[in-house]
Amino acid sequence: MACTCVVGLQWGDEAKGKIVDLLTAEHDLVVRYNGGANAGHTVVRGGKTFKFSLLPTGVLHPHLRSVIGNGVVVYPVRFFEEVNQLRAAGVPVGGDNLVVSDHAHVIFPYHLEEERLLEEGGGEQAIGTTGRGIGPCYQDKVGRRHAVRLGELAHPDHLLKRLGPIVAYKNALLRSLSPTARQFDAETLCRDYTRAMEQVRPHLADTTRLLHEGLKAGKSILYEAAQGSLLDVDHGTYPYVTSSNSSPAGVWSGSGVPARRLTRVVGVIKAYSTRVGRGPFPTELNDGPDGIGEKIRKTGREYGTVTGRPRRCGWFDAVAARYSAALGGVDDLAVMLLDVLSDLDELRIATAYELDGERIDCFPSDSFLLERCKPVYETMPGWRVDVSGARKPADLPSAARRYVDRLSELLKLPVSIVSVGPDRVQTIFMR
Ligand code: GDP
Ligand code: IMO
Ligand code: MG
Fold first, then answer.
1. Which is deepest, 36, 65, 327, 411, by most CB within 10 Å?
2. Closest to 382 (Cα-Cα) out of 335, 428, 341, 337
3. β-strand 415-419 against 427-429: which pairing, if any?
4. Annotated catalytic, 41?
């Protein structure tokens, strides 16, 4: 019985959505276990593009059950925007194929306001977040007193009792951040969220029990990680990370299913590196408007799905990816966007760093140390042939094949999938 986790090994946007979509047919349940609407997962099939933020991409397969686990933070407004967009595109979404945990935490508009004020006034300390209220909501979850779980919205009297002191606290906090901060009213929020609950109710479930029952009945689960492992709150490039465990470390806590039930962890890597938001990025190509960084950005259409921000681009970093592959217990690799590199004479891969004059080959995840790391590169020849039509390993030019083999060697893991374009069909299964 398959229990697979698809996880990004870089700073997000590795094209996890495409891999999840490719693997869904082999599974019965698709589970998001971390993050929220900060994610942007793209699936392209038959010329049609679908973008997912909060919902698992499994929703595209109505015969599957898609699950938003307890580890996710949910903004009901977004939930319905996404459900309605999918329905408008002819995708059936109902309580039987999309369930959401009653233990998932709820994002309120005061979370968005708190994040906006902190980021805008943050100066050098700003993280460069997606502005979706993710950090403040997780902060409240861990702090306990000011957090609300989705299941609580079904009890209006209880909710109003909870929101009274919470909103008073939040209003004072927001005012202390800025005299012009938005202020909120507990009764209005209670009314709005009680109304939202009427729509959420058909989807609400004890998802931990549901997953355990599924496993007992022999069903297989596909975990869809959001963000990348280097954005994991514990193991990523702290503090320039997201506020959840985006590596497979989050599977257990964010779904209630023991991680030892996983039978396969697929590590998704771009053939180069990107990052959105602030934080150290040793292999970043800051080489101007005519440089390779800009070329990769243009060819790979490297602009954030959620915020539209240009993604920072750079060479593949084997030191960083080796670290996250070990962290996640990765079994095999999916190498994505190989086609984007087709136009380059030569390619570079960071195989080690130099830190304060010393060569190191382990990844320092503390941002203040990583900032001081200079990549040590090896250079490989480019292939300068369009590979987007390749469908089997033999279709790849030998230099492209050597590049993929080198990534595999450096990470000491087999490559099972190579992707040469956004569409489902632009995929090479290597074994
Ligand atoms: P995710 O967040 O990891 O799911 O990745 P995103 O969807 O944010 O970003 C990946 C982008 O690359 C999407 O626009 C995909 O449609 C696109 N994509 C996926 N695979 C390939 C590929 O092999 N080549 C190219 N050129 N684009 C790809
Ligand atoms: P997917 O699932 C890339 C980044 C933000 C910011 C940091 C914290 O599409 O790979 P947050 O809003 O989470 O508090 O922002 O994390 N970030 C992502 N970068 N892909 C994502 O998701 C991201 N989700 C968050 O840019 O640097
Ligand atoms: Mg994305």
1. 36
2. 341
3. antiparallel
4. yes
